[in-house]
Amino acid sequence: MSFTAEQIATVLNGTIEGDSSVVVNNFSKIEEGKPGTLTFLANPKYTHYIYTTEASIVLVNNDFKAEHPIKATLIRCFNAYAALAILLDLVEKSKPQKSGIEQMSHIASSAKLGENVYIGSFAYIADNVKIGDNSKIYPQVYIGENVEIGTNTTIYPGVKIYSGCKLGSNCIIHAGTVIGSDGFGFAPQDDGTYKKIPQLGIVIVEDDVEIGANTTIDRAVMDATIVRKGVKLDNLIQVAHNVEIGENTVMAAQVGISGSTKVGKQCMIGGQVGLGGHISIGDNVNIGAQSGIISNIKPDAKILGSPAIPVKDFFRSSVVFPKLPEIYRQLAQLQKEIEELKSNQNK
């Protein structure tokens, strides 16, 4: 599909600087821009590319100030990155939508499907499953007994949803994700073996949640593991039993959350962060990549490191790390000189 700068500016409520009739039919990165494409500038590190890009249209923030001539047409908007997301979403929704029930799928007679539901080949829909209007179940998905799925939710190939779990509306579950597998619960025995503790709870995923590929969310021992509204989880994340993740929290890849930990609202958690069990993370907490968290974190904290410490302290410490061998050598020399002074005083 092709769009003019004028049409795009209308959608974004933006202001055009340049040729309003220029047409684009694709997207590109600003450093690799090509004629006929649209790109954006949101990160100041890429500002120099706006003067050389071959892209026909560039989305910029309202406060952008050009220091050199720019060949491309600019569309100024409230937030260039958010505006790009709006456009990409429009393009995605304009694509042909899957519909209908394909052959070779299994749907139990007691399952209830809403209107305009898509079920792909080799999908398995068990007894008493409820799937809301406009939801899409791609091939090779397994949905266990008594699972409930809201409206307009998309479940990509290979997802497994165990019995009793509940998914809200407008969710996206990417390929290979497992929701509702048993939590890691084993009781040590006197003979050194471990007895499995049955996991009788479920997983609840609220509305507007996106879960990346090959992420696993364990069912609770009792009650529910809960992923609240608006949460965004990257690929390869492990969420253990009885965890609760607060609204609009985002997590990058390879985060691991131990059992019964509570994560607050609006948190941002970097890749490979490990959260210990039975702790509480407050609202609006930022945790840097590869941090290890073993105790409660107060709201609004920004932490980094393993064990994690306040960000400013970590950066101060990181300056010292490379100097430690020299500091140690100097300390040893000072200790030697002090001993010599003591020895001389005692003579």
The general outline is: flat
Structural category is alpha/beta
CATH architecture identity of the largest domain: 3 Solenoid
Work out the count of structural domains: 3
Low-pLDDT runs: none
Strand content: 25-35%
Largest sheet: 12 strands, mixed
Whole-Å distance between the termini?
94 Å
Overall pLDDT confidence:
95
**Spatial arrangement of strands, main beta sheet:** 8-11-14-17-20-25-28-31-34-37-39-40
Number of strands: 40
The helix fraction, in percent, is: 10-25%
Task: State the helix count.
Answer: 4
Within the CATH hierarchy, at the fold level, what is the topology of the largest domain? Answer: UDP N-Acetylglucosamine Acyltransferase, domain 1
Q: What radius of gyration results from the CA coordinates?
A: 27 Å
CATH superfamily of the largest domain: Hexapeptide repeat proteins
CATH class of the largest domain: Mainly Beta
